[in-house]
Amino acid sequence: MRTVTPAADQFALTVEQISSALVRPDITLTQVPAPSRLAPFALAMTAEPTDVDSDAFSGRFVLLHDPDGVEEWGGTFRAVIFARAELESDLLTDDLVREVAWSWILESTGDLEITELGGTVTSNFGQSFGTLADRPADGFVEVRSSWTPIEDASGIP
């Protein structure tokens, strides 16, 4: 039998708040197995289009909690996201795509009380040649980011 501790209570309350967040109707959130070696408490969720035939985007959110704190995090909680979205053909070679994608992170975390924000943005595109030249160019942008909420989980969207 698992003992309920203040840390477990705090994490359970945070998970409850996240689980009750309003989500756009075109997005399906699913709780999935969380990484077990990174922290004593963890939550992982995926975000996929409601339309099962769409590959336009995908995402993953992970919340880690170590009541003892982690020096690299600068706190006891760490939020981690991964998001991937297809690019429209006119954006495939735009040099500003990565900066715009990072601005999405800055805008979405702008009102939160967070620290230790970091991440990477990767864009990729492909163009077909030869017998495949009729295929349209395609590509995607991926954003990986993490941050630490200040004091409690108030910095988690």
Quick one: how many beta strands? 6
Strand order of the largest sheet: 1-2-3-4-6-5
Residues in β-strands, percent: 35-45%
Helix/strand/pairing category: alpha+beta
Rg, rounded, reads 18 Å
Order of helix and strand elements from N to C terminus: HEEEEHEE
* Helix share bin: 10-25%
Compute the number of helices: 2
Shape: elongated
How confident is the prediction overall: mean pLDDT? Answer: 86
Largest sheet: 6 strands, antiparallel
Distance between the termini: 32 Å
Low-confidence stretches: none
At a glance:
By secondary structure, this protein is α+β, with helices and mostly antiparallel strands. Helix content is 17%, strand content 42%.
Tell me what you see in this structure.
The protein is an alpha+beta fold and 157 residues long. Helices cover 17% and strands 42% of the residues. It has helices at residues 6-19, 97-109; strands at residues 27-32, 41-49, 57-70, 75-86, 114-126, 138-149. Strands 1-2-3-4-6-5 form a six-stranded antiparallel β-sheet, covered by helices on one side. The two termini are 32 Å apart.
